[in-house]
Amino acid sequence: MRSYEPHVIEEKRQKIWEQKHLYRVTENGAGEKYYLLEMFPYPSGRIHMGHVRNYSIGDVIARYKRMRGFNVLHPMGWDAFGMPAENAAIERGVHPAAWTHENIAYMREQLKRLGFSYDWEREIATCDVEYYRWEQWMFLRMFEKGLVYRKSSPVNYCQKCQTVLANEQVEGGACWRCGEEVVQKELTQWFFAITKYADELYEYCDKLPGWPERVLNMQKNWIGKSYGVEVDFPMEDGDGAPLTIFTTRPDTLYGVTFMVLSPEHPLSTRLPAGTEHEQTVRAFVEKTKTQDKSFRAEITTQKEGVFTGRYVSNPLTGARVPIYVGNFVLMEYGTGAIMAVPAHDQRDFEFAKEYGLPVIATIMPANGALDPATMEAAYEGDGRMANSGPFNGKHNRETIPAIIDYLEEKKIGRRTVNYRLRDWGISRQRYWGAPIPIIYCDDCGTVPVPPEDLPVVLPLDLKVTAVGKSPLAEDPEFYKVNCPICKKPGRRETDTMDTFVESSWYFLRYACADYDQGPLDSARVNYWMPVDQYIGGVEHAVLHLLYSRFFNRVLNELDLVAAREPFENLLTQGMVIKDGSKMSKSKGNVVDPDYMIKKYGADTARLFCLFASPPEKDLDWSDKGVEGCFRFLQRVWRLVTERLDDIKGTVSALEPVVDDTDSVQLAYLIHKTVKKVTEDIDRFHLNTAIARIMELVNGVYKFIEKDKKDEDSKGLLRGAMETVIVLLFPFVPHIAEELWEMLGLDIQTIGRSWPQYNEKYIMEDRVLVVVQVNGKLRDRCEVERDTDQEQLKNIAHSLDKVRRHLEGKTIVKTVVVPNKLVNIVVK
């Protein structure tokens, strides 16, 4: 008997798969299409256990769908641009391109060693010129459509690294790489006009039933659609245009006691100009503008502000209202100015208490009145109006339409839909990214690179330094170029695109990775799109997924793709945790997949990641759990290999031929397991699917213990073994395929056929009860589960095969084991 040697088996199977191109797929394949995709990785050097878990989940579904007859596209590629490659170049003296491609080569081999069924002929790397040239083409088309523009904007900036940081690269107000405090800096940036699609992106969240509610809520909150009113507060003495604010709570207008401007608001320094407050306000604005905006927006952040010396009038009451500049107001929401109602908003309340500003309560709770002098917190609930003129005594929610009507009638307010979402700034002052195809000319202005001059190739002979500008900005061979219009000397844009641009359309390129006549072969793309199942971490719930939805809409309008939404269904898997925290090198709790494969084999690594937790939950790493999975595979191995001689030449069966209790029970278990595993995989309950297969293995071992030698029993045993192997195949394909071959079966069939179950064996509401007379089997009966014991006795006594053994005898007693057995004792 051969022992279980996973390394030998896995290398052998993987070699066969590669030689036969088993996972190559075309648009002409048989069966309904199914596009299964996991979020592609950044080639950081090594895959981690989070990757193993993510891709194992996807591989189970891909293999399962092939077995169900689907034509499955399951590709892999590399999100290859970005700052880590530049950092590696700085720290190790290696060019980003060399570092990236070396990592891709190693990680590709790691993924192959794990046995993932990718169509490697569709592999892409976003740093390849044949990929980003079409991204530049898309930029130009979006420029033509008015979806790309350039403006000055505050950005996250690390003074030590001397570069702009994306929001996700700011951690706790500090640079993710060097830990330096991040400041806000005004720079001219390129933007994608994603806000033009804000309403559709928001509303379509309700048309994605295959997405987790949590993710949809995160996208909705990020887009931040809110219905309200813009209200004009006239400046005191009619000096200048009114100060306009946006509010969703016009019912609180009577309680406004001060206004607050964002430091970025153009009026923040203009209003106090020439007054005694000018220097104080300017100093506050400059200080606050350097602070991380996410920190400023935190509820717990200390509320700070300064008085501008200017006032507005409340349009409903005529009251004089002072204008402040405050750190907690962001330009990104509404108009960048707020009306402050400290009695009914906690942030406003804290600010008012800090600066001794008045509090006017205008909404009274049902259980009594509010006294501003004794209030310890804002009252943010509903109630009856007070101190609100003609609306006193009315429920506050009832007054909102009437107040808005009044504001519109007086032309001092307008019903408005506001969005939190802001346009997507894509400029990065970094080297390792896709060049932006723009040329600046003193005479012609901003000129797009002609499509026939694409690609604008990123030069690979530049040295990346730790500080200073991007090497592109200091390379005359790159930036010196003639204007395409007037032919005079111009200057090429030296910023590169945000790497989220590459990941916003890669899923489309997989459908036609070899296409060189344009960005997309629409016929092939439209065959595969939308993605039927997308799998990735919830940390990508907003930016990547939102940007991809935006990009897909743009490409739809360019007639490149028919689908409006890119991802039909989404699964967000949890993290892999060890010692109570996410695995990371800094915490010293990383488990190396290479070590796992070397010690236990890829199948064990896959099995543990799939069995230890439901896909959407975090997985707690357990060395004992890994050992347990390895032992289970050894047990499956022995189940087959130790009985090969016994079942040699036996015809497989899934139903008992003889009337044998053990055989009938095994048949029930086989068919119920097939049904349950099928349902579990369809619902992504992969851990419970594995548990059910383990139960079947236990059942087969119990059947073996009966030591039945007849051919019918051998046939059922073989059928049970084959069922175990086929059900395990999507999870642990190497050992399953090896055992299948050892049974003398064609390995081509295991990955192309899913077992069927017989309905008569899987009736969940009925059970098979054995009926004995004096301990000897006389018959069986199928009854409703949990049938009353007295009724069960009567049924047993009425059976023909039982009655003949009762004739002329006295029933001493009847023993009932619910749902299992009735034993009639006679003399």
Would you give an account of this structure?
- The chain is of the alpha+beta class and 827 residues long.
- Among the domains are: 226-418, Valyl/Leucyl/Isoleucyl-tRNA synthetase, editing domain (Isoleucyl-tRNA Synthetase, domain 2); 623-761, Isoleucyl-tRNA Synthetase, Domain 1 (Orthogonal Bundle); 766-826, Ubiquitin-like (UB roll).
- Helices cover 37% and strands 18% of the residues.
- It contains 28 helices and 32 strands.
- The strands form 10 sheets. Strands 2-1-24-25 form a 4-stranded parallel sheet, with helices on one face.
- Strand 26 and strand 27 form a beta hairpin.
- Helix 3 (83-92) crosses helix 4 (96-113) and helix 24 (711-728) packs antiparallel against helix 25.
- The chain is globular, with a radius of gyration of 35 Å.
- The two termini are 52 Å apart.
Considering the chains and any ligands shown, give keywords for the structure.
28 helices; Isoleucyl-tRNA Synthetase, domain 2; Ubiquitin-like (UB roll); four-stranded parallel β-sheet; 827 residues; globular
The main pleated sheet reads as:
4 strands, parallel
Number of strands: 32
What's the CATH topology name of the domain at 226-418? Isoleucyl-tRNA Synthetase, domain 2
From the alpha carbons, calculate the radius of gyration and give it in angstroms: 35 Å
Shape: globular
The top-level CATH class of the domain at 226-418 is Alpha Beta
Low-pLDDT ranges: none
The proportion of residues in beta strands is 15-25%
Distance between the termini: 52 Å
CATH architectural grouping of the domain at 226-418: Alpha-Beta Complex
Q: Report the helical percentage.
A: 25-40%
Structure annotation, total helices: 28
CATH evolutionary superfamily of the domain at 226-418:
Valyl/Leucyl/Isoleucyl-tRNA synthetase, editing domain
Structural class: alpha+beta
Average residue pLDDT: 93
Order of strands, main sheet, comes to: 2-1-24-25
